[in-house]
Give the backbone structure.
Amino acid sequence: MKHSQTLFVVIMSLLIMMGSIAQAGSIKGKVTYKKKKYLKTTVVYIDSVAGEFSPPKEHLLMNQENLVFSPKVLPLLVGTTVDFYNSDEVAHNVFTPDKSADKFNLGTWPKGEIRSYTFDKKCENTCDAVMLCNVHPEMEAFVVILQNPYFATVDKDGNFEIEDLPEGKYTLSVWHPKLKSESQEVSVVDEGMTEVTFSLKK
Amino acid sequence: MGKLLTIIFIGALLLSSTILYTNTKAIPAFARKYETSCVTCHIGFPKLNSFGEAYRLNGYQYPEDDADQTKDEPVSLGSESYKRVFPKAVWPNDISGKPPIALRVESGFEYDRTEEIKTSFIAPSLTLFSAGTMGENIGFYAGAHLFEEGEIGSLGRAFIQLSNFLEPKLGKNTLNIRLGQFIPNIVSFSNHRGLAVTPYAYNTYSATSEGFSGGHAHGSTSFGLEALQVGLELSGIIKSKFRWGAGLVNGAGSATETNSAKDGYFKADYKFGGMGYDGSESNPDQSGRNWVEKSIAIGGFSYFGSTKNNDLAGPNDLKIARYGININLYWNNSNLFGGWINGNDEAMDLSVLEEKKYDLAFTELNQVVYPWLIGLIRYERAEPENALAIERTVLGFTALYRANMKFVFETAFDPSDVNFGNMVIKLDFAI
């Protein structure tokens, strides 16, 4: 009897998993702009997806190396913690003037040290915060704080793919630090691939 | 028609013969910054096409989206986001990645039958100049004549232009501020942006001088519109087609102030047709020839100032006054322009204060025969009060050997004097 109960649970779990896989689709697309070099800092994301999403337990990393933040743009789910690591021989600081990250200032620290911040302030759909170093004013990076985990950073050619999206209708948007935001309505179908293109303007 | 014009210009040179020297400008540093050819902005450098003029007026920035057009990666002196931190941080800007420096070499050959040494090769002149932007809406220009015809030179223009000042409130192009040593914006026909070697009498002539001056456009001992001035100038563009400028300067073309009074000037122009002064273009020419447009611009100016009286008799200061009008017509491959000016200068003559008045008019045609071959013909006439009228005709052509290298063949003569006899062939290049 105990074996048959276990078998039942396993079978039901498999069916549920198969069901959930079968109900997911993906969005694939391309973002274009007259200057290709601008594309690498583009984030594509779903505005809003029903439900609550738990942030990852693992921290994301933003490195400070050769007087540059890396990555330049870091999209993340609200509640995610970012470790700011100093790889340089010189001291760095990280602060933001943006309310979306409570205008934090993590202070100044030397090579090899990490200071962390959790981006837990919820805003409507999305918001961003610029990361600056007051020791080196030319350094700049952006954290894009999102409501859900369905987002992607485009590659150097502007291509992107968002996978495992639940079936449904969504607003797909593009974020860029210098270019105008764009949005499109998209439908994600069961096991389907929705293709989208964005043409950005300044 | 084009070949005929070429033959006419060459023929005129062969028949005629004042070495005249100019100081023209074209800036390869811009070519490096945008990785574009000189001909993007020039019709046979240093003459500007309408786009080049819009670029100049906008403080050496592309009329639209300068950052997008810049190929040279600038060096950031503060990320753009630091604007949000202000006033708790310095307002961010950037500087050119490549040194914005260029060199210009001018030399040539002259023939003047009135001189003892009738023919000579001209000792080279070397000019070092730097121009560009220091981030958004801050333009600069600095030029030094290192050697002028073999002699040690002097500082030329050196200024900062704050473009689109208070743009969020006033709008783009409404207010620009220039500070430093510059040529006042009242000059519509500048030798720095013209094809001819011979200076414009419109800018250099004074009833206190004897005849038309040759030589350097800045070099006249008497007052001239194109003289370098030290001071402050405001300018702007309204609704694309109207431009204005007003300035307050030390005056009298002297870098060092000679009296307490300041000189002031005002200028306004309106352009019908063609590209707007802000670079906007409602009906661009479809031929791909970026010097072609159909437009007419009409303007006027006034200048009032004073200079120190060095005579023991008379007042402390001697008054200077100029006002005039200018017209500039573009029609296909032709550019016909001209102006009239009235001058009234006080001068001491044998310790007696006199007013030296004159009227002067001129017209010039520039004809693009080929994109590399441009002819010019100019007629100038001055009528000083209480003296005989004087005339000058200038004939010449510019041949671009390359986009940054040219030969100028030119002669200037009194049309009523058949014994004219001067000619200059000038080689000019910039790197």
